[in-house]
């Protein structure tokens, strides 16, 4: 399964266009524009599984940096400050990585 099986390619493209400039990425806005915030729990778990590149059950900081590229290979890499802000916003237990439940909570809040 790919992200375009769950999210509309045009919504993904619009979300990526919205954050093309460095330091313009807002997770909440990205989730809304891409349509992720409207997905149910099982769809969000599948999106998380796709984004968890090493299939560790977590999205670590080094994977988070390439978050946009998981949606489109030519997309930019998140800046260090965007990555740290994204991680801090989702990592509720302070373990330095985002679990599936933390991801789902962030997308749906």
What does this molecule look like?
- With 109 residues, the chain is mainly alpha-helical.
- It has a single domain, classed as Recoverin, domain 1 (Orthogonal Bundle), CATH 1.10.238.
- It contains six helices and two strands; from the N terminus they run αααβααβα.
- The model has no long low-confidence stretch (mean pLDDT 96).
Instruction: Write down how many β-strands occur, each being a DSSP E stretch of 2 or more residues.
Output: 2
First-residue to last-residue Cα separation: 25 Å
Structural class: mainly alpha
Mean pLDDT: 96
Question: Key terms for this structure?
Answer:
2 strands; mainly alpha; two-stranded antiparallel sheet; Recoverin, domain 1; 6 helices; 109 residues
Concise description?
InterPro entries: EF-hand-dom_pair, EF_Hand_1_Ca_BS, EF_hand_dom, Parvalbumin. The protein is mainly α.
What are the SSEs and their pairings?
Elements: H1 9-18, H2 27-34, H3 41-51, E1 58-60, H4 61-64, H5 80-90, E2 97-99, H6 100-108
Antiparallel strand pairs: 1-2
Helix pairs in contact: 1-2, 3-6
């Amino acid at each position: 399964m790919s992200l375009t099986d769950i999210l509309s390619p045009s919504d993904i493209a619009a979300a990526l266009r919205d954050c093309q400039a460095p330091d313009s990425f807002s997770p909440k806005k990205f989730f809304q524009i891409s349509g992720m915030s409207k997905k149910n729990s099982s769809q969000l778990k599948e999106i998380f599984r796709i984004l968890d590149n090493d299939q560790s059950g977590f999205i670590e900081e080094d994977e988070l940096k390439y978050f946009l590229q998981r949606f489109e290979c030519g997309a930019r890499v998140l800046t260090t400050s965007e990555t740290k802000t994204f991680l801090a916003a989702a990592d509720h237990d302070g373990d330095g990585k985002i679990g599936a439940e933390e991801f789902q909570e962030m997308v749906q809040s």
